[in-house]
Amino acid sequence: MSNTPNLGLTLMSASQAQKDTVFNNLAIAFDALFKGSVISAAVTTPPASPAVGDAYIVPAGATGWPVGHDDNVAFYFNGWQYIAPPLKLRLYDVATGRFMTYQGPSTHWTNDPLSTVSVLGDLTNVTGSPADGQVLTFIAVDGHWEPRTPAFTGPLSGLSDVQVSEGAPIDGMALTWNNTDHKWEPSAFVKTIPPVTFLGLSDVSYAGASSGWVLVYNETGPGAHFVAINTLETVSSLDQVGDVAYPTGGVGAIPSGAYLRWNGAAWVPSTSAVAYSWEGISDGPGAMAGKAGYLVRVNALEDAIEYVSPAAALGTSFKLMDLLDVTAAEASGDDGKVLTWVQSASRWEPLPPPSGVTTLAGLSDVSVSEDVGHDGDVLAWHNATSRWVPLGLAPVAVSGHYGDLTGAPSLAEVALSGAYADLTGKPTIITALANLSDVTIAEGAGIDGYSLVWDNTAGHWGPRLVTGGASAFTSLSDVPAAYTGAGGKFVKVNSGGTGLEFVAATVTTALSALTDVSITSAAAQDELYYDGTASRWKNRPTPYNLSASITGLMIGGEILLQYVFPEAVTFKSGLTGSYAKSNTAATASTTVLIQKNGAAIGSMAWAGSGTSATFTFSSDVAFAAGDILQLVAPGTADGTLADIGITLAGVRS
Is the confidence at residue 102, as pLDDT, over 70? Predict the structure, then answer.
C-alpha cells in the first residue's frame, strides 16, 4: 500500500480489503481541504463539541492538541482527523477574515497581505527601484529583496575557472575540464568515430579460420573464435542429452508406453501412474496434518488457497445472536426462553417454552398408571388400541439367569465341557476357498496372480487373469466408444443421467436470441437499456439532448442559441421529454422560435406569470451533420422573464 506524494493519503492496493474505508478517508480529506477555509488558526485546544466538517489550523506549540500535529489542518469527522499541509497551501481564516499561507516548518502559517498585490513592488519584503539590467537579490541581513547590479557581466574568458584566449586559433575547439589546473581549457573536438570492424574486437580471433566456419565462444579463453562446423558436437537422440538417463540395456529396456519423469537428478523412463494430490498442488495450502475441521478459502492476495480455522473465518466471538435470522439479546430477559420460529417475521425469536403435558402418563397415546403395580414394566405398542401400554417382563428378562427361563431344555454335555467335538449335529467348517460349493478352482502355481471372476453361465466363481483397466476415455463403459464424428463437440451427462455423451456446442449468434433480450423493430443508432419491470434488455433510439442556459433577461430578436450538429439527429413531434423553465416568471405571453437553418420549425411559449414553457412542434424534424438549430427571442423581449434553462430531447438517427 502506498501514499499520495503531497498529502500522504493512503491509496488502495490491487487486493485492498475494505476498499470503502480507504476511499471514504480520501473523500473526507478532499472535502476538508477543498472547502478552502478554517474556523480559526489560533485555537490552542480542540473544541469540546465540534460539528461534523469543522476545520482548524493547529497553532505551532499548542499544548491542547495531540503532540506531533503542529501546523496540521484538523477537521472533525468521526473524531479529529489531521492532514500535514503541503508548502504554500492557502486557506481562509474565518476568525480573522484573512487568507493564510503555509510557509514551511520554520515560518509556519503567515497572514497574506491585506491589499491586492498587482506588481512586484507591492510585496512587503521587496524594496528599491530597479535600474535597467539589475536583478532581484535577497539580502539576508536585511531580510528583504532589492534590485542589484550583477557582479560580473564580462565575456566567458573573464571567468576565474576558464583559461582561454578567444580568437581564430581556437576556432572549432571545445572547452574541456583540466583536473590538474582546475580550469576549463580549449581542446580539439573529435568529430568522427574511427571505424570499428568485427576483426578488430579484442575478444574475437580469426586465427586459422576458413570459409564456412562458425563463431563459438569459449568461457575459459581465448573468447570468441571460429571453428569448422563439422567439429561441433551434435545430438541425434534423446539418450545423448546430459540430463536424460536411460536404463541398463538402453532404449530396448524401456517398456512400451513409458514416459520421462524427473527423479531429482535426471529424466528417467517410467511407467508409474502419475498421482495428483490436494497437498501437492502448487497453489494449494500444503499438508493437511493438524488441519482437521479447517476450511479453505482464497487468500488476501488472490493468488492461492489457504487453510483457515472456523474461528478465524467466522470470528472468535461469533454467537447465535449474531445470525441474521435470529433476534436474541442473550440477557437476563431471555432466561429460560426457547428459540421459536416466527413465520410472520421470518426469524427465530426467544419465547417462553410451551406449556402443557409434563409427564409420560399425561400423553394422549399412553395408557398407564404410574404406581407400584407397574414396577419394572416396559411400555409396548398395542396396535388394537393405538396406545402405548405397560407390559410386565418375564423373570429371566429381569434376572438374566438360565434357571428362570420357562421350558428351558436340559444342558447338553457340550455346555459342561465347552468342546466343539461334544456338540451333536455340528456343521462342517470350511477352511479353504476351494471347498466352497460355488467356487471352482485348483489352487497352485498355475493360477499365480489370477483373480476370482463370477461366471453367470456356470453359476460359480472361477480363476481368471484380470489385466489392464480403462486407460483411455473411450474405454470407459459409460462414455462414447469412439471420437469419430465428435470433433469440436463437448461432453455432457445424457438426459437419463446414466452416462456421458458428445454434443455440439449451442452458440448464440444473434443478440436477439438471448433469453433476457427483447428487440423490437431495431433501427440505426438504437441502444439497449435494461427494463427492470420486464427483466429484459430492450432497444430504443439513442437519446441526444441539447441544453442551453440563458442568464438574465432576453434582448429582443437576439439569437439565444446557435447549435451546429456534428451528426444526424431527429426531434420527434411534440418534442416529448423536452423542457424550458425560468427562475423568474414572464409578465406577458412570450414566444421563442425554434429554427432549422433559418426557417421556423416550432416554438416554445411562456404564458403570463408562467415559468414553464409549452412546446409547439407539429412533426418530426431531422437534422443532418452541419445543420444549424437556432433559438430566437421575440422582437420585443418580456421585461421580467429571466434566467432560463432549456433542454430539447432528440434521438440519434
Answer: yes
